[in-house]
Each structure stands twice: as C-alpha cells, then as structure tokens.
Amino acid sequence: MPKQRCLILGGCGFIGSHLADALLSSGYDVRLFDKQNVDTRNIEHILHRIELHRGDFTNPADITAALENVTYVFHLIGTTLPSRSNENPRYDLESNVGGTLSLLDAAVQVGVRKVIFSSSGGTVYGASERIPIPESAPTQPLCAYGISKLAIEKYLALYHHLHGLDYACLRIANPYGERQNPLAAQGAAAVFLGRAQRGEPIHIWGDGEVTRDYIYVADVIRAFNRVMQASTSEHVFNVGSGQGLSLNQLLGVIREVTGVRLDVRYQAGRKLDVPVSVLDIGRMRQVFDWTPQVNLTSGIARTWRWIQETYRN
Predict the structure, then answer these.
(1) Structural domain span for residue 206
(2) Do the beta carbons of residue 247 and residue 288 sit within 8 Å?
(3) Active site residue 125
(4) Do 147 and 201 fall into the same domain?
(5) What is the β-pairing status of strands 72-75 and 5-9?
(6) Cis bond leading into 60, ω under 30°?
(7) Residue-by-residue DSSP string for 277-289
(8) Catalytic residue among 28, 72, 125, 145, which?
(9) Cα–Cα distance, 38 to 42 (Å, whole number)
(10) What CA–CA distance (Å, rounded) separates 24 from 6?
C-alpha cells in the first residue's frame, strides 16, 4: 500500500518545517508548497526527502498541481501579518480568503480527505470578556488578519456541509521556538531573544502589561498530529498553554534564561492589541488527550540556544 501524502502550504516556514519533520518521522510522504523566492534554510536537512513546489497561493493552477495525489492538507500559508493587515483589508481578503476558496474547490475535486487549518487564537476572539477564552466565546476580531482567519474557518465548515470535506481549525495562541525568525515583525519571544543576542533595544507597544498565551512549537506540532488522525464532531480547537504572561513577565523569563541586561523601551500602545488573550484548552484535552509538555522557561532556553548557534555575531 503506498504511503499517504501530506501537503503543507507554507511548509518552509517556522511551524511548517517542524511539521514536515514530524510527518516524515511518522512515515508519510511530504510535499511542501511555498512562494517562488522562499528561503529554504529551515528545510535544508530534509530537502532530499520531500517534494518542494514553488508557486503563487492565489493562482488556482499552482494549487491544483500541488494537490495531486494528496490525502491531507495542512493550511499554514498566509500573505499578511496582524500588525499590517488593517493597512489593506481588501488585499488581506482577496489573497487569503480568495486563495483558500480556490484551494477548497481543488481539494474537493481531487478527493482530499482532510484540511487542517492554522487559525489564530490571538486574533479571532478580539477583546473577550471570558478569560481563559473557550472556543464558544464570541468572535470580534480587531484586525483584518483575524477576520480573514475567521472567514476561512466558516468556509471550511461550509465545504464540509456541502461536499463532506473533513477539516479541523487550530486556533493557535502565540507559538515560539527554534526556526522562528528573530528578525521578523512578529513573534515576541524570538524577536526579543534576537535583540538580546545582538545587544539591540527591545521596543514594547504600551506599558508591557499586554498579556498573551505562549506555546512551544513542539506542542503545536503534537496538536496537528492529533487532529490529523481522527474525525470528530468538533472542528475548532484552541491550542495554547492555557496560561497568561505579560510582556514584562516574558522579559523577566528572558533575563533569567539569557543573563543579558535588556534595553527595554516603551512606546504608545496600538488599537489592534487586546489587553489579555489566554486560551481555554479544555476541548483539546478532552477530545485528544492533548496538553502542553514544554514549559515556558525550558522552551525559551531551547530557543535561545538555537539563536546563539544560528545567528553568531
């Protein structure tokens, strides 16, 4: 019997590359899809074991070609960031939601078994009155990025209803870990560690009391594996630590792990930053017996070691 093939959209990225490692270890054929000029450093060690398709996510022909003989699709690709999406909501909608509709049409046509979507636990809920936030909480995103993520979840439910396409949406909190780009515009843990390593100032929007839920990448990958392997009546799952940490507290952990004296500079807050976002992970625990295994201090220490090894001065 031939191996089942998994397609990871955005497979050269931070989470996608870790997911590729895990799927290969589990015996699956793995195909990655990413943009034409993608940086392949995260997957150099597995390039000889995977297929890499380069193309345009908004081009239906590119997506259809990537879906050939695929059983499972992991939708991790995105064209915008939360902090920039409000600058051009139309582009965010057309590229992310429009591209996903083409993907779903093609997935139905070729007989994909299941689509697993990387949604956003940090943006789809907005400023929730319930902390920790369950999946049943109202969704009031404050940025176009979150609105698009939520729209994609709804279209997945629609295609399940109309065509029987199985799916799962993982509303991931704030993932961090090795291979997260410390030079990027998002990902507080890696960005702060990168600046600590380079001796650069750390800039904080607001007073540092914005509270988030941080989840180590290996625990995220375990969640993907669990939802891939089972069909359930529930389709939307929070994936986080279930614990809140302010930016100031995160900085305290980074000081403890690195021993670096940090130059922290505070500036005006942003409208898109909700004060507190902590996820209730009870559904993942109940349905899949999943709980995070790596605590924050250990995860930050692993990420710090990777940054020191990878970005030597």
Answers:
(1) 177-213+242-310
(2) no
(3) no
(4) no
(5) parallel
(6) no
(7) --B--HHHHHHH-
(8) 145
(9) 10
(10) 10
Q: Are residues 147 and 229 in the same domain?
A: yes
Per-residue pLDDT, 3: 83
Q: Which residue has the tokens 């986080």?
A: 240
Query: For the packed helices 247-258 and 296-310, what is the interaxial angle rounded to 10 degrees?
Result: 60
φ/ψ region of 289 (left if φ > 0, alpha if ψ in -120 to 50, else beta) reads left
Q: Is 119 helix (H, G, I), strand (E, B) or coil?
A: strand
Cα separation, 73 vs 249, whole angstroms = 37
Other beta carbons less than 10 A from residue 234's beta carbon: 14
Is the peptide bond between 132 and the residue preceding it cis, with omega within 30 degrees of 0?
A: yes
Per-residue pLDDT of 172-223, as tens digits, reads: 999 999 999 999 888 999 999 999 999 999 999 999 999 999 999 999 999 9
Q: How high is the mean pLDDT of the chain?
A: 95
- The predicted-structure confidence for 131-184, as pLDDT tens digits, reads as follows 999 999 999 999 999 999 999 999 999 999 999 999 999 999 999 999 999 998
Nearest to 281 by CA among 217, 207, 214: 214
Quote the CA–CA distance of 150 and 171 in Å, as a whole number: 10
- How far apart are alpha carbons 190 and 282 in whole angstroms? 27
Pair 60, 193 in one domain: no
Among the listed residues 52, 1, 3, the one whose alpha carbon sits nearest the alpha carbon of residue 23: 3
